[in-house]
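Dear V.,

Thank you for sending over the compound details. I've combined the ligand you provided, fe (ii) ion, with the protein sequence from our construct and run the structure prediction for the complex. I'm sharing the raw inputs here so there's no ambiguity about protonation or stereochemistry in the SMILES, which I know was a concern on your side last time.
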Amino acid sequence: MRLPVILALLTIACSAPRLNSFHLEDQILDHGVLPARIGFGSCADQNRPQPILRRVVERDPDLFVYLGDNIYGDTEDMAVLRGKYFTLGCRPEFQALRAHCPLLATWDDHDYGANDSGRRYAMKEESREIFLDFWREPKDSSRRRHEGVYDARLFEDDGRRLQIILLDTRTFRDDLLLAGENPEPPFKNDYRTNQSPDATILGPAQWAWLRRQLLVPADLRVIATSIQFGHSYNGWESWTNVPRERQRMIDLIGETRANGVVFISGDVHWGEINRQDVPGGYPLYDVTASGINNDWDVIEPSTRRVGAPVALYNVGFIEVDWSAEDPAVALISMDVEGREANRIDLRASDLRFPGTR
Ligand SMILES: [Fe+2]
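Below is the predicted structure of the protein with fe (ii) ion bound, written out as structure tokens.
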């Protein structure tokens, strides 16, 4: 190949956002890169404009995490599914975000392929291939070698570490318990709680993988779950449908002494921040960002909500001042006008087990 051609190709390659990535057994380590502004969002109808993505780019994220319902696929026809991803990929506001910063993604029911579906969705393997291709997962990635789309990234610079954990709440999830017609309180909406010890959301392999991730040292670890984790039961799909699995997560964080966990979630078509105090631990926050261009008429109450919910289209940001001795961590709901609709300011030390560093 002639030198001018090589230089031209190098110029093109270097102009795109790149991470200096190394594949480890379970995850990818990015050396010399430590995102300070992490945006995230969910619930994006590919057929309608997504102007909030312009506001996201203005806020200049270093990384953006798609939390699921990234398109509304809702089909077992894989040509249709590919076409809907293509529609999203053609949106100029999406292209602007994709050109601005690296994108990470997990999926929820609608981009997985069927409303509220779990492990019984017939086309989950084919849909997974389309998902991984659209989100530009490298062909040699370890993520392509296991069932489901769960994944972890580790960013490290100057002795500080950020971990992003992407959960898959669809591929392994058992059927939920329907609430039935006119459910008796406290049950309401679509689902009652399932107390069976056998019911799972993540499945055994993903739980074992997650345990290994939580043992990796990190100053801040963002756990992306498509469905909400931190709120109180409201009858829609969430971790509260299977309380034993939800408690297992809290117990696993305790057992591994994993500091710095913040959950981010989507799905419900409103924004909110929930906080759960854990005896002997530290507060677990869940920043729900939903949706990019979807909203909902009735915002359900939550006994763990901090600040006001966001009814307008919204996304979330976690912003970190890594230069501080005790890094400042801001949890933010940003509405479609670019305003901070809710904000919680923390220090990294607020997210640590007592007596640990
Ligand atoms: Fe969903």
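A first observation: Residues 69, 108-110, 267 surround fe (ii) ion (CB under 6 Å).

Warm regards,
I. M.
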